[in-house]
Amino acid sequence: MIRPETAQETAFRAEVRSWFEANLQQHLRNLTFRPAPKESMAWYGALYENGWIAPHWPKSFGGMGASAEEQVILFEESARIGAPDIPTQGLNHIGPLLMKLGTPRQQAFHLPRILSGEGVWCQGYSEPGSGSDLASVQTRGEVRGGEIVINGQKIWTTWGHHANWMYALVRAIPGEKKKNGITFVLLDMNTKGITRRPIRTIAGDDEFCEVFFDDVAVPLSNVVGEVDQGWRVATSLLDEERIRIGTPLLPLRALARLRAVMKHNGLSNDREWQRRLARSEIAVETVTAAYFQCLERFETGNAAGGESSYLKILATEVTQDIVDLVQEAAGPLRAVKVPSAGSDARVDFSEMYLQSRRLSIYGGSNEIQRSILAAQVLGLQGARR
Ligand SMILES: Cc1cc2nc3c(=O)[nH]c(=O)nc-3n(C[C@H](O)[C@H](O)[C@H](O)COP(=O)(O)OP(=O)(O)OC[C@H]3O[C@@H](n4cnc5c(N)ncnc54)[C@H](O)[C@@H]3O)c2cc1C
Predict the structure, then answer these.
(1) Which site in 149, 155, 219, 316 is 20 to 30 Å from 226, CA atoms measured?
(2) What is the pLDDT of residues 325-369, one digit of tens each?
(3) Is the pLDDT score of 202 beyond 90?
(4) CA of residue 323 to ligand 1 center, whole Å
(5) Residue 92 lies in a domain
(6) Measuring from atom 24 of ligand 1, which residue has the nearest CA?
(7) For position 297, which CATH number holds?
(8) Residue 357 CA: which ligand 1 atom is closest?
């Protein structure tokens, strides 16, 4: 941290640091992979009990109502101690969306469950033939009486085999590629007719899966917005998703890793590596500044368009650049992969590199984000998602 801090912020940082030290279990610290929800939920529960699980949620919905500065302090202290990833589809994506566009009933049912961790969510957007071109989703959602009956397939569903709820995009008339025929629906993953098949990733874990729907009947009260009018809902959620991917947390974690690997390989006092570390620290501060600016623009209603895309590109590419440095600092050890990373003494060199490849793909690839900027900011013809 190289920003000036108020006395109040310094006191908050001290409180966070000592609480994290006292409450984060050793075996969950400094993991280079995303632990499965069943492993990380103990930490999730501890944050919930302490009132810190949703810093960015307003107090009126049970969140912490934290300022942007307090949020960043939490990210910095999380990275410092090596806190694990927790499931965020509820906290960062569907929760904020329901606050904006959900019915009072949907809010009252789901928001408290997201906070407590009882509701673990996954995202059912992508399909085998529909990723960047999201408006081409073909999973069918046919209204029959008071229900919407779903048939089709989703893919790349992060934690789909651990989640008990999914938000998904379906359409009434298959074969169409129109944005106005899409419905945004909330699905209980224990509904009859849902099959999940895990997919193994390049890093060797199975954090995402394919999900198949065979006559899955969902009450119409689970539609967010109107039937056939879900595109606006879907893209509003993507804005939230990209802002949360764009927090300084990811690059801060990579920075902590760079320091650990430099120490492990005796590079901490090397002038050239100190210079590289300093440049990385400045790059992370740039992400933090962009995050502050983005939040302020959204909160004051001054978002000009493209903010979340810019932030997503910046945070993920700064992270990947630092992870590339981690690999370089690792030298010949860069291919080494141990079963579980943890302390400085037991550094898993390759895991973070493999995990970092996804950053420029998920949440809409960075090429697509650049097309959004080209269209919305520069006024050029481009792809939008
Ligand atoms: C780790 C991870 C987790 C994910 N989790 C989820 C999840 O939970 N739920 C979910 O629904 N999806 C999830 N996804 C899927 C993700 O949203 C898609 O992978 C992404 O949108 C890209 O779609 P695609 O894979 O079909 O690639 P494609 O759309 O086929 O794109 C392939 C390549 O072509 C480029 N490209 C495509 N169209 C254009 C264009 N018009 N202009 C320029 N370049 C273009 C892309 O940038 C990309 O490099 C996840 C992906 C990853 C990697």
Answers:
(1) 155
(2) 999 999 888 887 765 444 444 567 788 888 899 999 999 999 999
(3) no
(4) 21
(5) no
(6) 131
(7) 1.20.140.10
(8) 53
Domain annotation covers residue 54: yes
The whole-number pLDDT of residue 2 equals 66
CATH code of 12's domain: 1.10.540.10
Atom of ligand 1 nearest to the CA of 363: 17
Helix (H) or strand (E) holding 147: strand 147-158
Look up residue 371 and give its two tokens.
């097309």
Q: What are phi and psi of 21, to 5 degrees?
A: -60, -40
Residue after which a domain boundary falls, among 86, 109, 144 = 86
The reply to whether 101 falls in a domain is no
The verdict on whether 241 is a catalytic residue reads yes
Q: How far is CA 358 from CA 77, 156, 353, 362, 363, in A?
A: 24, 11, 10, 6, 10
Q: Which of 8, 93, 85, 101 is nearest to 44 (CA)?
A: 85
Task: Please write the tens of the pLDDT for every residue from 45-101.
Answer: 999 999 999 999 999 999 999 999 999 999 999 999 999 999 999 999 999 999 999
| Residues 136-194 pLDDT 10s | 999 999 999 999 999 999 999 999 999 999 999 999 887 777 888 999 999 999 999 99
For atom 7 of ligand 1, the residue with the nearest CA is 157
**Domain interval for residue 285:** 246-376
Active-site choice (70, 210, 240, 241): 241
- Nearest to residue 251, comparing CAs of 326, 305, 309? 326
Which residue is closest in CA terms to ligand 1's atom 30? Answer: 131
Q: Give distance in angstroms: CA of 24 to centre of ligand 1.
A: 34
Do 343 and 271 belong together in one domain? yes
| Index of the ligand 1 atom closest to the CA of residue 124 | 11
CA of 213 to the centre of ligand 1 (A): 21
pLDDT of residue 339: 52
Ligand 1-lining residues (CB < 6 angstroms): 122-126, 131-132, 156-158, 208, 358, 361-362, 364-365, 367-368, 371, 383
CA distance linking residue 167 with residue 98, whole number of Å: 11
Based on the domain organization, do 268 and 370 belong to the same domain? yes
* 327/270 same-domain check: yes
- Residue 342: the pLDDT is 46
